[in-house]
Structure formats: structure tokens, C-alpha cells
From TrEMBL:
<dbReference type="Pfam" id="PF03706">
    <property type="entry name" value="LPG_synthase_TM"/>
</dbReference>
<feature type="transmembrane region" description="Helical">
    <location>
        <begin position="243"/>
        <end position="266"/>
    </location>
</feature>
<feature type="transmembrane region" description="Helical">
    <location>
        <begin position="53"/>
        <end position="72"/>
    </location>
</feature>
<feature type="transmembrane region" description="Helical">
    <location>
        <begin position="165"/>
        <end position="185"/>
    </location>
</feature>
<feature type="transmembrane region" description="Helical">
    <location>
        <begin position="20"/>
        <end position="37"/>
    </location>
</feature>
<keyword id="KW-1003">Cell membrane</keyword>
<dbReference type="GO" id="GO:0005886">
    <property type="term" value="C:plasma membrane"/>
</dbReference>
<keyword id="KW-0472">Membrane</keyword>
<feature type="transmembrane region" description="Helical">
    <location>
        <begin position="134"/>
        <end position="153"/>
    </location>
</feature>
<protein>
    <submittedName>
        <fullName>Uncharacterized membrane protein YbhN, UPF0104 family</fullName>
    </submittedName>
</protein>
<keyword id="KW-0812">Transmembrane</keyword>
<keyword id="KW-1133">Transmembrane helix</keyword>
<dbReference type="InterPro" id="IPR022791">
    <property type="entry name" value="L-PG_synthase/AglD"/>
</dbReference>
<feature type="transmembrane region" description="Helical">
    <location>
        <begin position="286"/>
        <end position="308"/>
    </location>
</feature>
Length: 317
């Protein structure tokens, strides 16, 4: 995703047929899950969700948004773009709201880069947005690699419990994850073609940036995992440490698939397919993922305040 791509995503008109095409996959997948993963049971879990867990899950998502905005602020600063922290937080909330509302998952980020172009040009603004998002993906995949290795090598590690009745759902999860890998590889090729290497080193590695970025990314990943785990608790599922460190990142990675709206459908398919691996039901995974999606949607609503109060993100004259 280059600066030209970001500008094109922000400026080109989006036909209603394109929107409908992007809306089809989550609707179809959730419809299939309703049948395969005992939808009525998942809905019962969701309606009986414990607010004592949903409230801290909501707080964790908001903290994650603020921390991500700070990471963007610091990445931009190292690339020579000055974005005040208050404006960075407001912009990030607005970006999250757009990404939660429209297909594709990048329109909010594209608009954020375009609005921030005045400080240092669209090229630097686009790189700051891309690198900040890339830092989050590196952290999540890094955790997944470390936790997966630990679970495999530890005696008595992650114990999987699978029966034949759950095979079809597991296959669905496998296809979702395979698609995520495919999208990730294409994303990496675009990064190479954009020649971002030097900017990535400047923003994430050089002059002590690696330490600051590692702390920020670790905190953001921990808040994401905590929020999903709390949503699972709210809907009646207790996840062990290994499940949190291995399965939850896999579920969250399904949200990277761009052919959907904010990960809906693909995330639920991954959760329904992976929860049985640790002895929970597919319905439990379905319910936990639905709760998590609703919490994220609710946590993006402060973006409405920013939308109707544009002076918050207006550059000082």
C-alpha cells in the first residue's frame, strides 16, 4: 500500500455494488456458522454475557486505541512529521470508526494519511500510517511464533481436543488462516515495491526506536489479547494461558483479511474453528468473537464526536 494507493482509496468513488460485494463474505460466513456452530447456543451465550467482563474489555480496547495513536505519533515524529498527541488520538478514533463501518479495512487509514499530509507531504504521511500498522502486525506475528514454539516444545504443552463432528468447522478455520497468510505475503511484496526499508529502520529500529516501539507494541498486543479473553469470559469460556497466547492471536489475525468489514465473519469462523482445539465448543468461539466485535464497534464510537467536531483534528493556522 503506497502513498498513491492511500490517496486513491481515499478519493475514488465507491460504487454500491462494490460495497455489497465486500459485505457478502461476512454475511455468508456468519450464516454458515449459524448452522454449523449452533447459532442459537451462541446467541444465548451472547445475550447472557457478563457485563463485569465486558466493561474492562471495552476499557482495554480504548486503551489500545490510545496506545496505537501514540505509536503513530512517535513513528511520524521519527520520519519528520509532527502530529500532536491530542490530534493523533482524535484521528485514530475517527480512523477506527471508518474502518469499522466500511468494507476494506483501510479507508480510515487512507483518510488519516491524506489529512496528515500537510505537515510533511503525502509520502511521509502515508509511510507513517503504513509503518505504524506494520509494527502492530510484526508484534502479533512475533508473539504467535514465540508462543507457538513454546507450546510445542514444552512437555504437556497446548493440549488439543478434536472430534470428527468439528472437522468441517476446523477446515473453515484453516481456509481462513491460509487466506490470511496469502494476504500477508502480498502485503509484504507491496512493502518491498514501495521501498520502505530505510523508513522502517528509521521509525522502528534506529536510535533507540526499537526499545520504545517494542514496549508500545507489546502493550497494544497485550490489550488486544486481554479484551478478547475478557469477552470469552463474559460469554462463559475460560481460556488457559497457552490458548490466549497461541489461539487468540490466530483469531485476531483473521481480521486482516481485506474482503470484509472490520474482520466480521472471518474472525468468527476462525474462533469457531479454533475453540474446539482447547476443549471449548464452536458455539463458545462464535459467541466470544461476536462479543469482541461488538465491543470494538462500541469502542470506536468516540469517532462520531470527532466527526461532528472537526475542529479537534483541524491543523492550527
Amino acid at each position: 500500500m503506497t502513498s498513491e494507493t492511500l490517496e486513491r482509496e481515499h478519493s475514488r468513488p465507491q460504487s454500491k455494488w462494490r460495497y455489497l460485494f465486500r459485505l457478502a463474505p461476512p454475511v455468508i460466513i456468519i450464516g454458515l456458522l449459524w448452522s454449523l456452530a449452533d447459532g442459537p447456543s451462541a446467541l444465548a451465550r451472547l445475550t447472557d454475557a457478563d457485563w463485569r467482563y465486558l466493561i474492562p474489555a471495552f476499557a482495554a480496547v480504548n486503551l489500545q486505541t490510545i496506545a496505537s495513536a501514540w505509536r503513530w505519533h512517535r513513528v511520524a515524529a521519527r520520519l519528520g512529521q509532527a502530529i500532536p498527541p491530542r490530534r493523533a488520538v482524535a484521528e485514530y478514533y475517527l480512523s477506527q470508526l471508518v474502518n469499522q463501518s466500511l468494507p476494506g479495512g483501510v479507508l480510515g487509514d487512507a483518510a488519516r494519511a491524506v489529512r496528515a499530509r500537510h505537515e510533511a507531504g503525502l509520502g511521509i504521511a502515508a509511510k507513517a500510517v503504513i509503518i505504524e500498522r506494520l509494527a502492530g502486525q510484526i508484534a502479533m506475528f512475533g508473539l504467535l511464533a514465540l508462543a507457538g514454539t513454546w507450546a510445542i516444545l514444552t512437555p504437556g504443552g497446548l493440549t488439543l481436543a478434536v472430534d470428527q463432528n468439528q472437522l468441517l468447522i476446523g477446515m473453515l478455520a484453516f481456509m481462513v488462516l491460509a487466506l490470511v497468510v496469502y494476504v500477508g505475503l502480498r502485503f509484504a511484496r507491496k512493502k518491498r515495491s514501495a521501498r520502505l526499508g530505510q523508513s522502517i529502520r528509521t521509525a522502528l529500529v534506529a536510535n533507540g526506536a526499537w526499545f520504545e516501539q517494542s514496549l508500545l507494541s507489546a502493550a497494544i498486543v497485550a490489550l488486544n489479547l486481554a479484551s478478547f479473553t475478557l469477552c470469552a469470559l463474559a460469554t462463559g469460556t475460560v481460556l488457559g494461558l497457552e490458548a490466549v497466547l497461541v489461539l487468540v492471536p490466530l483469531i485476531l489475525c483473521a481480521m486482516l483479511v481485506p474482503a470484509t468489514v472490520a474482520g466480521w465473519g472471518f474472525r468468527e469462523g476462525a474462533a469457531a474453528g479454533l475453540f474446539p482445539l482447547v476443549g471449548a465448543t464452536a458455539a463458545a468461539g462464535f459467541a466470544a468473537s461476536l462479543a469482541f466485535g461488538l465491543v470494538i464497534l462500541a469502542a470506536s464510537l468516540p469517532g462520531l464526536f470527532v466527526l461532528f467536531r472537526p475542529n479537534i483534528i483541524r491543523r492550527p493556522s
